[in-house]
Amino acid sequence: MRPLVAEIRLDNLIHNYKLSRSRHGGRALAVVKANAYGHGAAKCAQALADVADGFAVACLEEALELREAGIKRPIVLLEGVFEASELDEVARHGLWPVVQSEEQLQMLLAARPAAPFNVWLKMDSGMHRAGFYPHDYARAYQRLADSANVGDIVKMTHFARADEPELSTTQAQIETFDAATAGLPGAVSIANSAGILSHPRARRDWGRPGIVLYGASPLPEGNHDGDGLKPVMRLATKVFSVRELPAGETIGYGGTWTSDRPTRIGLIACGYADGYPRLASTGSPVAIDGQRSRIIGRVSMDMIMVDLTDLPGAGIGSEVELWGDVVSVNEVAAAAGTISYELLCNVKRAHKRYV
Ligand SMILES: *Cc1c(COP(=O)(O)O)cnc(C)c1O
């Protein structure tokens, strides 16, 4: 068996959920969209089935996967529905759609559901991606509230820059939202992970933690001991070939790296086809039998070269952690010029092992 394994520590997932909910207060939707950020949506939701107040996914297809896996708690569709024909299934499975546009609102009002929909009405408080403008919000709310098709309405918005706590933009979004929802009854949900971690005024009835559930901090300083998060995924493989090179040799595609001394190179089973970022070529950290080292040369499709020169005890069979406990996914993301979310979502072909 190819030795690349993504170990998913479900106890850490439960720990991170409880931690984020207690930091936020009230209730929290466990955001398990995009296959639980690459961790496996059904397995993660099952682990949280009796713990989480509810779940959030992007779309109907993702919600149905959870219902098929036996998940009974509320599920919010963060993008809402894409066509009116989805509303039968939404009603049958008691899903809670976000309503973020006039088109979605009209679909709901025109439906003939057996039971009313609980909806999450989204405001564009400044991100300018989705949602009703503040000056249109109360009217949209009223049209929903007046419809027999609609039960509860949760008022929601989403932050553009909550991971930059020094800026005033999140505070401005909160003020816009509060002003435009004043007097409208119902629960409120505004905080994503970064909102929960660094914006106390964003903590309302429902938190929406995503990336923190998986143990990666969205904040620029990345993970630090004080945040209490525990990484859920540990992506690891093995050295399966070793070679020695004198100084002055290049390795890998493009010859982008040249040895400046006699060098021992380990070849590991992992590449960009597994989701490891190709942009994290020479320099990206790895841990070999628990000791930090680095990638050298370009990441190729199925293989990566790592530097064993200063690790004389390492060789064929040595374990290489790509990210997890010694190397944080945030470090690798930084080396690749991206964010942990993208790396985690992209993991594929690796064997998943749930513990
Ligand atoms: C994805 C998403 C979240 C979770 O975001 P994180 O940054 O992972 O916590 C919360 N709310 C909405 C609307 C989302 O789309």
TrEMBL record:
EC number: 5.1.1.1
Modification N6-(pyridoxal phosphate)lysine occurs at: 33
Pathway listed: Amino-acid biosynthesis; D-alanine biosynthesis; D-alanine from L-alanine: step 1/1
SMART domains assigned: Ala_racemase_C
Named cofactor requirement(s): pyridoxal 5'-phosphate
One GO MF term: alanine racemase activity
Binding site residues for substrate: 129, 301
Name this protein carries in UniProt: Alanine racemase
Gene behind this protein: alr
